[in-house]
Amino acid sequence: MTLRPIWRLLGVAGVSLSLLGCGSDDSTSSTKNAPLFEFNAQQNGGRTVRWANLPVRVVLGDGVARADEVTVWTGATGGAVTFTFLPSAAGANVTFGFRSGSDICGVTFVDFTDDGDMLSAEVQVSQSIYRGPQCVRTVTHEAAHAIGFLGHTSDGGLMDPDGGNGDITSLVGGVLRDLYHFAPATVVSAQARRAG
Out of 22-26, 51-55, 146-150, which region has the weakest mean confidence (pLDDT)? Predict the structure, then answer.
């Protein structure tokens, strides 16, 4: 079964998700990591969701995104996430394109399996506004969703719904670094399990 969460930057009150049901939890051990649970694993029944194979293969679209707007995540994760850029969508994991309208700066559609394997990510930015003053680092914000940051923060940084001040906070870098430390579908809990 494939899940299709949808994240939008600007113009929304929060995260809009469309989720199908997940299977039951398996008996594997759980890692306590509340931020990783909140911004990734809770979208998949407590199991991590990420690209199983690196580098992530990206198509920037014709004039839509720049490589430096995506590869900033390699530095922010201490090299945990890497990218390669392709000339066409054939074989790509992440694609960038334009969307019509000017109600939001960008939106990311992510498909993944219950097993935590990301299948595809499609980033659409509103051509008329995504580089305007009302949109803060839209491509970089949406690229984070495309690699597994499956939510929004409220700390004033780039991953706030409105892009905040545009800074990548230590919380966001840490979540993505931790995410790529574990295999897809690693069970993560927000709280420690009780003994006995």
Answer: 22-26
- Hey, what are 1's tokens? 């079964």
**What would the pLDDT profile of 100-147 be if each residue is shown by its tens digit?**
999 999 999 999 999 999 999 999 999 999 999 999 999 999 999 999
- Per-residue H/E/C for the chain: CEECCEEEECCCCCCECCCCCCCCCCCCCCEECHHHHHHCHHHHCCECCECCCCCEEEECCCCCCCHHHHHHHHHHCCCCCCEEECCCCCCCCEEEEEECCCCCCEEEEEEEECCCEEEEEEEEEECCCCCCCCCCCHHHHHHHHHCCCCCCCCCCCCCCCCCCCCCCCHHHHHHHHHHCCCCCCCEEECCCCCCC
Exposed, middle or buried: residue 102 (CB in 10 Å: 0-12, 13-18, 19+)? middle
| Owner of token pair 């409220």 | 154
Strands 94-99 and 6-9 come out as unpaired
pLDDT in tens, 85-95: 999 999 999 99
5 CB neighbour count, 10 Å cutoff: 20
Rounded to whole angstroms, the Cα distance separating 18 from 116 reads 17
Furthest CA-CA distance within the chain: 58
- Dig out the tokens for 196 from the structure: 């006995």
Contacts of residue 147, Cβ cutoff 8 Å, sequence gap at least 6 = 50, 51, 56, 73, 81, 94, 121, 176
